[in-house]
Structures are given as structure tokens and as C-alpha cells.
Design brief:
This protein has 510 residues and is of the alpha/beta class. Among the domains are: 156 residues, Rossmann fold (3-Layer(aba) Sandwich), CATH 3.40.50; 104 residues, Rossmann fold (3-Layer(aba) Sandwich); 96 residues, 2-Layer Sandwich (GMP Synthetase, Chain A, domain 3). It contains 14 helices and 24 strands. Strands 2-1-10-9-11-12-13-14 form an 8-stranded mixed β-sheet. α6 crosses α7.
Length: 510
């Protein structure tokens, strides 16, 4: 079946592409620069034409590490239109991380910020990648140079529903990130479901302060806007002052829990400020019940918490109409099945904690180049093992109680402990290490490293953190390093990270 995600988006905004009128605005930047749906249509066509002229073919990967900008959004849409695979990377990634992604994804084109061009040129040469182009935060660069010479006509390439639209990377406990293959239908079906579930319409204006290299900001937020014909106030990043300034003009806000805890620190957060708001949505990390209650007391609004992951986009959501329960992520979304099972895949009774599994059109098709790992993570009846621990109450609401894979979510961004541990273990004088997440007042969780050093090594916390700073994105670097004589282990010699989390639960509050 012919199915291109761009066509699904365009059905939502097609009537807004004829004129640049006030009701056809797609986004407004912090500097009050206005971009219309027609701008998105024309610019993405021009970029798609440019990419095709480079020789890129449907299915080729386009790796993108750029700052958030309207032009970066046009590039995403251009990749969809040309049948290319969009591969976004966190702007904080450094050389070692980038080298792995480029080698594994094997893109035909890399697009980077001009500040990073020299490094990326070296990596592109090492990996024999055909093309490297620049896109700066202001929209300039070789990608967009003389772009007006390209045609605004482009026939969207036909794809199948199960063709790959995007490649994202995640990881488990093995240390090496895994490529997540997200199809056109995965993303399209999820956006359509969320629009219905959250009541999105063309009268909505979203406060978009999320990064667009992440599922939350790219597929969830943008999908809801584009498919409904809504508009956005487009912020480069979340800042409390800017959010306070623009809340009166928007109707929906999506954010990670950190956004809400920071807003609560402002005396300006009042019912009057938020009277125009229709919906506050939180995700990417657990929302504390305390934050949920305090936000309601301060504004009169109940935050809608939902649950998703890179492999599945959104799985469950508290209802738009109906009770939003603190500490839960709501019932399964329409078309999505969720179950709680024990270690031998037997479904557990209501209220019992076990392994959370999901099945539905939103679930990814598999891990890139890893058929054995893909088979391992799916049950014989097609459910995906999320790696999360959860339970389902009598009303069908799901609560996430832990993560079997020990992933740390800090400020809404994922940190995979094994990746950090491998780097620490390579340091001279380190015998072994264990990386955990502990509560953090601002980020929800933060990274802490527990290190066993060789006798007489004389390692210091500063030395370990300094070594990590030059090799890892800032959000992955441990906030604290603890030195111990040995790590706690069970009878199978596996490190008991649950005991470490309990022991150091308050270490960042001291």
C-alpha cells in the first residue's frame, strides 16, 4: 500500500497552503518571525529537490545534528517527501558517539552545524560517507545556499506503510546503542490517535520548547500540530521567562517534568496566566505526584501524563475527558494493547507488578541490522518487551514503577548506564564501575557513578568527571562519583543496582 507520512501530515494542513494568511500560520519564533504552512510546503519541496540532485535514493539515511530551527523542520519534511530516512542526533553528542552512529547508520548525507563542520568532515571521510552539508541555527549554510533556485514543485515519493521513515538510536544494558526502525505507518498512526485522544484542532497553538532530535518534540508534538493544522510558538529551548511570556497566547503545552517543576518556582504562575490553556501534557520521564498536585493547586489545571518510548512512540495516556490520576500514565491509547506479565509471559492479575509489554501499530518494526535482538525483544504473539516494570489498576490505568533495563532519564533525555560504565572502566586505575540514576530536584534523575579503584590508584572524583566530560554529552556525565571497596552482588554475581540506588538516593540532596 502506498503510504508516505508527509501525505498524512499534509491532509491536516492542505487548505492552509494556498495563501500566507493569519489563519495559515505554522509557527512564530521568539523573535516574532512568522512562518506559514505554505513556507513549509515550498521550502521542503526545494530541499527535497536538492537532496535528489545529490543522488540520494529512497531508503538512504540522512544523519542530522543541527540546532533547532524552522529550516531543520523543513529538512525533516523534505526527507519524508523524497522517501529518505531521517536520522536525528542529539546536538550534545561528541566525537566518540558520533563515530559510532555514522558507522552504524551508514548515511548517504550528513547535515551538521557549521561549528561542528571540521570534526564532522573528519568522521565523514573516515566512514566514506558521500556528502556533508551545513545547516546553521539561523538557517544559513551550504544546505540552503541559493535554495531559491530550486523548484517549489516536488512529487512526494510513494512509499509503503512499512518502509522506514526515521532511524533513532536507543540502548539497553549492552552498552552499544541500537538503531530503532520507525516506519511511516508507525508514526502516522500514532499521531492520528493522539490528535483524537487529546482533542487537537486547527484552533490550537502549541508552546513548542522541546528539542526536535527526540521522539517527544519531533514526532509527538510536530505530528499533532501538522496533522491537525494547528500552529506553534517555537522556542529554541525551554526557559521559564519565555514560557511565562507566551502561556497566555497558547492553548497547549508539551514538556518534560523538569519544565513543570521550574514553572512552579515562578510566582507568576497563576490561574490568570493559564486561563487560555486547554491542556498541559507531560512525558519522557515520570511526573512526581507532588508536582501533579502542586500544579493543580497553583493553576487549576491537571497535567495530563502519558507514557511512550523511542521504540513505540506513545502507548498510554491519561484521558482528555475523565480522571487524570497522579502517579499513573493512564489507560492504553486506542489500538494499543498493554499487558503485565511475569518472567514466563503469563498475564498477571490486576494490581500486580510485572513486565510491561505492548502491541499495536505504533510499535517499531525492529532494530537496525539486529534481527536476533529484534526477535529476542518480541514475544511469539507479537508483544514488545518494553523493559519497564508496571501494574494496571481496576480502572485500566497503567503505573510505571521501575525500569528493568536500569536506564536513567535525566531532564527527559535517556542515559544508558553501560555506555558510561564502559568509559569509566577504561580509565587507568579503575577496576569496575556501576552507573545509576538518583533523584534530582530539577532534572528528575541525575547520573551518579559508583567506582571501585585498584589499590593505590589514587583516583579522584574530579579526574573521573573530567575524563567523562571530554567523551560524553553533558547530560550523561556523572554529577557525583562515589568510591567504594566493592559493588553489591547477588548470588549470580550480578551487580545489585537497586541497592546502590537505595544507598545513594539522597546523595544529591546533601
Amino acid at each position: 500500500m502506498d503510504y508516505n507520512l508527509y501525505n498524512e501530515y499534509r491532509r491536516g494542513f492542505a487548505h492552509k497552503c494556498s495563501e500566507r494568511l493569519s489563519d495559515s500560520v505554522l509557527l512564530v519564533t521568539e523573535s516574532d518571525e512568522i512562518f506559514y504552512y505554505l513556507d513549509a510546503e515550498d521550502a521542503s519541496a526545494r530541499l527535497a529537490n536538492r537532496l535528489v540532485k545529490l543522488g540520494l535514493q529512497p531508503g538512504d539515511r540522512v544523519t542530522v545534528q543541527v540546532e533547532k530551527s524552522p529550516q531543520a523542520l523543513w529538512l525533516y519534511l523534505a526527507c519524508l517527501r523524497a522517501g529518505l530516512v531521517f536520522h536525528p542526533l542529539n546536538t550534545a553528542y561528541l566525537r566518540g558517539e558520533l563515530a559510532y552512529f555514522l558507522e552504524n547508520a551508514a548515511p548517504a548525507l550528513v547535515v551538521c552545524d557549521g561549528h561542528n563542520e571540521e570534526l564532522m568532515a573528519e568522521l565523514v571521510a573516515e566512514c566514506s560517507i558521500p556528502h556533508l552539508l551545513v545547516l546553521n541555527a539561523d538557517g544559513s549554510g551550504s544546505l540552503t545556499e541559493d535554495i531559491t533556485t530550486e523548484s517549489t514543485e516536488f512529487e512526494t515519493v510513494s512509499r509503503r506503510a512499512d518502509d522506514m521513515a526515521a532511524l533513532l538510536y536507543s540502548s539497553g544494558t549492552t552498552g552499544r546503542p541500537k538503531g530503532i526502525v520507525l516506519t511511516h505507518a508507525n508514526l502516522g498512526s500514532n499521531s492520528s490517535t493522539l490528535i483524537d485522544s487529546w482533542g487537537f484542532s486547527e484552533t490550537d497553538r502549541l508552546l513548542h520548547a522541546l528539542p526536535i532530535f527526540h521522539v517527544h518534540g519531533l514526532f509527538v508534538a510536530l505530528g499533532c500540530v501538522l496533522m491537525s493544522g494547528a500552529s506553534m510558538r517555537w522556542l529554541q529551548a525551554f526557559k521559564v521567562d519565555a514560557a511565562i511570556k507566551y502561556l497566555p497566547e497558547v492553548t497547549v503545552m508539551m514538556g518534560v517534568p523538569t519544565f513543570y517543576t521550574r514553572l512552579l518556582q515562578s510566582e507568576l504562575l497563576t490561574p490568570l496566566l493559564t486561563k487560555n490553556m486547554r491542556l498541559f501534557i507531560s512525558g519522557s520521564a515520570p511526573l512526581l505526584a507532588e508536582t501533579f498536585r502542586e500544579f493543580n493547586e497553583r493553576t487549576g489545571h491537571f497535567i495530563l501524563e502519558r507514557y511512550g518510548m523511542s521504540e513505540t512512540s506513545m502507548n498510554t495516556s491519561n484521558p482528555l475527558l475523565g480522571e487524570r490520576k497522579a502517579g499513573t500514565v493512564g489507560p492504553p491509547l486506542p489500538g494499543v494493547e498493554v499487558r503485565i506479565v511475569n518472567e514466563i509471559n503469563q498475564v498477571l492479575p490486576e494490581g500486580e507488578i510485572g513486565n510491561l509489554q505492548v502491541r499495536g501499530p505504533n510499535v517499531f518494526s525492529g532494530y537496525w541490522k539486529l534481527p536476533d535482538k529484534t526477535a529476542e525483544e518480541f514475544t511469539t504473539d507479537g508483544f514488545f518487551n518494553t523493559g519497564d516494570k508496571g501494574c494496571i489498576d481496576a480502572d485500566g490505568y497503567v503505573a510505571i514503577v521501575g525500569r528493568a533495563k536500569d536506564m536513567v532519564i535525566t531532564g527527559g533525555l535517556n542515559v544508558y548506564p553501560r555506555e558510561v560504565e564502559l568509559l569509566i572502566d577504561d580509565l587507568p586505575g579503575v577496576r569496575e564501575s556501576a552507573v545509576i540514576g538518583v533523584p534530582h530536584a530539577d532534572f528528575g534523575e541525575a547520573v551518579v557513578a559508583v567506582v571501585v579503584q585498584e589499590p593505590g590508584a589514587g583516583l579522584t572524583e574530579h579526574a573521573v568527571i573530567s575524563a567523562m566530560t571530554s567523551n560524553l554529552a553533558k547530560f550523561k556525565v556523572p554529577k557525583k562519583v562515589v568510591f567504594v571497596d566493592e559493588l553489591p552482588r547477588n548470588t549470580m554475581a550480578k551487580v545489585q543496582k537497586n541497592l546502590l540506588r537505595e544507598a545513594y538516593e539522597a546523595i544529591l540532596q546533601e
